[in-house]
Amino acid sequence: MSLNAFFARHAVFTVEELDAFLSHRGSGNTATRNSLLAYYRRRGRIVSLRRGLYATVPLGMNPETAPIDPFLVAAKLTEDAVLAYHTALEFHGRAYSVHWAVVYVSAKRSLPMEFRSHEYRRAPVPPPLLRKGEAMFGVIRQRRSGVQIRVTSHERTLVDVLDRPDLTGEWEEIWRSLESVEFFDLDQVIEYARLLDNATTAAKVGFFLQQHRDDLMVEDKHLKVLRRMRPRQPHYLVRASRRDCTWVKDWNLMVPEQVLNRSWEEMP
User: Fold this and answer.
1) Residue 168: other Cβ atoms inside 10 A
2) How far is CA 168 from CA 85, 95, 126, 139, in A?
3) Is the pLDDT of residue 268 over 70?
4) Are 207 and 193 in contact (CB under 8 A)?
5) Cβ-contact 74, 120 below 8 angstroms
6) Whole-model pTM?
7) Which is nearest to 138 in space by CA: 146, 129, 147?
8) How confident is the model at residue 1 (pLDDT cuts 50, 70, 90)?
9) Rounded mean pLDDT of 84-89?
10) Hey, which residues does 151 pair with through a beta bridge?
């Protein structure tokens, strides 16, 4: 396979992937690799995203304006990167609106990065998942432009965005995005909520499912399990937002009136 064929199969690639390709061809030399990268950058065939990470420019396109898929970039920022939170909603075509921040989960530290109009942010793997060896629970693999991507499933994404709304957006964005999903495997949702081991998050999930029990075919057995996981004392749906809240007894949650009454639906 020629280097052009490698580019055709790797819309975004790491130096390590290029090294593996060159070694297979019998030319695994760092100086050779660096020379090739410099040559193809000068020719406008590849673009450097950051140290060790490159994007391929389709033949005949301007490297300054050629589209570079932000999902592919995020998927390559660390070895274990998983598209998550609002970015997972966008990947699945379920986001109510488009965000310029691209969020991925990784156990490896990685500095934020800006490229063109996108900001790439790493979120840590939730500590309970690391402790239990379940970092990849609810992670699925998809291929996009020949690149394998890891992304959270609809079920994990549902729980994640309620657990970390700061990585998703306003409550209207969260509610409308999740409401566009016609089906969830509720057993998977509950299992993931168990793994996170966060009473407030379990209550948020229960509250959302109860609000949508008919549309999502939620049964009493699902709500019963989540009720056992709810906090013993009232917790706020949003810690930083404590005004105009109503106590929802079923979940021991103090819920903002905006969410409880879905006031965004009243706006013209």
Assistant:
1) 26
2) 6, 9, 16, 18
3) no
4) no
5) yes
6) 0.92
7) 129
8) low
9) 98
10) 83, 140
